[in-house]
Amino acid sequence: MDEFADKFLTARVSRRRTLDLLAAGGLAAALAGTLGRRAMAAPPEDEVVRIGYLPITDAAALLVAHALGYFEDEGLKTEPPTLMRGWAPISEAFAAGKFNLVHLLKPIPVWMRYNNHLPVKIVAWGHTNGSALVVGGTSGIDSFAGLGGRQIAVPFWYSMHNVVLQMAIRSAGLKAVIKPQGEPLAPDEVNLQVLQPPEMPPALAAGKIDGYIVAEPFNALGELKAGGRILRFTGDIWKNHPCCVITMHEADTVQRPEWSQKVVNAVVRAEIYASQHKAEVARLISQDGKGYLPLPAAVVERAITHYDDPAYSASGANHNHAAWHNGRIDFQPWPYPSATKAIVQAMNTTVVSGDKTFLNGLDPDFVAKDLVDYDLVRAALAKYPEWKNDPSVNAGDPFQREEVFSL
Q1: How many domains is the chain built from?
Q2: Which of 58, 86, 294, 331 is deepest in the core (most CB within 10 A)?
Q3: Are 73 and 43 in contact (CB under 8 A)?
C-alpha cells in the first residue's frame, strides 16, 4: 500500500479498547457498558449543530451540508464536524450528548431505542446503497456459494452489511457461524468476524481474511490498494436499500421543533445536491477538498461514481438492473416504512455475537411508526421538491415503495 493508504489505515482512535469491546460481543457489548445503566444525557441547551461522523461516504449528506453552508443558510450555527473512527465511540458520544446530529447504521438506532431504551429518532435516510462485498483477487471466489469454509469480516454485528451478507449466503445454501479463528469450518459454513473498516483492506492483502463487506471508500481502497475485487454490490441485491440514517435526540425533535426542522432542511438539501453532483462532492469531502475524508479525490470519486463498468457486469458484481436506477451510492432522504419493517424482520434471522433477545416480539409495524420522525423530513422535501426527480422515486406515490431483492 502506498503512503496515503498506509497512513489512513494505521490511524486509530482507542483501537485496542474498541476491538476488545467488540470481541466481547459486538456492538451491543460495546455500548452496554456505557449506555445500558443510564439514560441518554441531555444535549447542551444552546442550538449549535454538533455533528459526529465516520470517515466514510455514508456521511456525505452531513459533510456537504456543512461544507456548503446549508446550516448557516437556515440560520443555524455549527461546529466543525468531529471525525470518529468507530460505531461504538460515535454512539457513546451521541448518547452522552456530545453530538446532536449523527449518521448511524440503521440497526444501531433500533438497538439503542428498544434494547437500551434511549430516546433516539431517525429523521431521514443519509443515503442508499454504498456498500459491497470485496474478496481477494486470487481467492477463486466467484459467487456467494464460494464463501463456504471462508473467513469474512463485517464492520459490526448490528449493521446492514451483516444483514445483507447473511441474506445472500442463506440463498446460496450456506450458514453464518461465529467461531474462533483457526477452528475447522464445514464446507457450508461462513465464519464471520468483526473488523474496524480501516483494518479490512490490509487484512485482505495479508491473507488473514478471504473477504469483507463494508461501506465506501474501503471497497474502492480494497480494489486499488489491496488486490481485492468486488464480488457483489449490496445495492444490486436490495434495490436502493438504506444503510446509514440521520439520527437526532428525540428531545430536540420535541422541544426544539423549529431548530430540528432547520437541521433536516439543510441535510435534505445536501442530499439533493450530492445526488446531482457526485464527482464534485467526492472531491469536496476528500483530502484534496475540505479534508473530511483522509483519502485523495481519486479514491473517493471511484467510491461514489464508479459503477456502470462492463467489468462489473462481466464478473457479476453488478447485474445491470437498469430499472432500479442504482448508483454505487445514492442519496435519497425519505425513510420508507417498508424498508424499516424489512430490516427489523431480517435482524431476527441474522446471526450475531451476544444477546439479541430484545428483538423477540419487536413488531416491525410499531418500529416503523415509533422510531422514525416523518414530519420533519416530509416538510423538508416539500421545501426542496427536486427529490421527486430522482428516477428511483415512485412518481405516482413518492412516499411508498415495495422492497425488491435479487439474491
Answers
A1: 2
A2: 331
A3: no
